[in-house]
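Thread: quick sanity check before group meeting

JM: Hey all, I'm pulling together slides for Thursday and realized we never actually wrote out the predicted structure for the chain we discussed last week. Dropping the sequence here so it's in one place. If anyone has concerns about the input, flag it before I start.
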Amino acid sequence: MLIVDVEPLAVNYFWTPADLHLHSTFALDGRFTPAELATRLANRGYAIGYITDEPAGQYITTQPLAPLMSGTGRRGAWPIPAMGTNIWLTDIFGSNRAQYLPWLATWETYRDTVRAASTAQVAMFPGLEVAASTVNQSHTEHNGHALAYGIRDLVGWGSFDTAGLRYNWFLPDNLLSNINANRLGWSSATIAHPTGHFEWDAWSVPGSPGGVINARYDGFELMSGVQTSFCPSSAHVGRWRQEIVARLSNAFAGQGFPSARTGSDWGGAGSEFFGISYFTFIGLPSWTSDMRHLLQDTVSVSLRAGRTVASRLGGFATLRLRNAQGVLQEIGSQFTMSANATVIGEIVLRAARAGSYTVRIIENYVGNTGQNSVPAFQGSTVTTRGLVAGQTVIIPVSFRFDGGQRAYHVVVEHVGGEAELADTIYTSPIFIRQQQRSNISCRLFLPQGVGRWCNSSPSAYPCLYTE
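JM (edit): ok, ran it. Output follows.
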């Protein structure tokens, strides 16, 4: 098992390493209790763990259905599993999931057990992984999975069957809406393993196989599970860029965007054969010395703001750009600039492993969702740095903003020997929009000192004319 010693890096925000996709014994196939997961996370250098177990609903078509988790919270053990454990349920009732219901855990038990598993090193929070359906309020085949963070319960503002988070019961757009409404202004959704197992196929662009989604979502898993491809040309990264562009207007309106996320999807069947992997760095407003005191609401605000960095092995990078007032803006920010203005800033890069690192800034806008590298490094589109493990460098950047609405994110690719030991990092974007021209009044001073009013753009110089 590869162990990466990851420390929080303070660059305005405190960037805190998290695993945002874990499973425990409150899912039917969960192998570890929340407390056991907390220990493993601490040993791997994580400071936040989000358990995202499935709610009830798989293979159950009846309604109404009680709002319950899909597991009991107790795994059980062979050869004689204790009554009421997950193994006992599957052994006695098989695929007749309706018979499991009297034994399944409530949200309250799940929530309290997960929170109680927090330690001084790791804050543990309860979330969900919920499958979408192909027919609304009907149990059908899987139609992709979404992760729910910052939620208050399984019911939301209605019932488990109408506005809640029942498993494999809602169309993708309805499911995302239900997650957002569960605790309005705090809860948020992420699309899990979008192009892998249980592929998500409803997107923001017309012609999507699963239909068009309009509901807000705030995260996109770029790395998950047993994934093997991480490069910018891979299908899932290409889809992420398309979604960023499709939601540019949403980002500028404060309605969210798909920020860069990872999730190990660890703790279920087969987890014994591989370790917890991938890091999502979350930008928090302050560092908490005892993670038991970290508030879930603090994490929820950062997740909804898109202050996240996706990392394969624990390396870290962030992009900071100065706005028109010269103030550094962090990833997840939106601001305006005049067309053709020069944007300056910096990339902070911290290596988890020794090797050569190539760094690029990718620019995306309507009509361009590809790997359009910005000539930000003294006119070059790429810079390469040789780093040792734990080394941090600050890389100055400067480029021209060509106007319109554009998103900028950093890609870091590491070469360090064997491919499975090579890191890859994606930052969430910074968004820049062209400053709107509007007429303002100013004085035009003539040589004789007689003034008259004229109109000018706010981006123009003061109207002081001489003849």
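AS: nice. The helical segments are 34-44, 86-93, 107-116, 172-182, 235-246, 248-252, 296-305. The CA atoms of residues 136 and 170 lie 5 Å apart.
JM: adding both to the slides.
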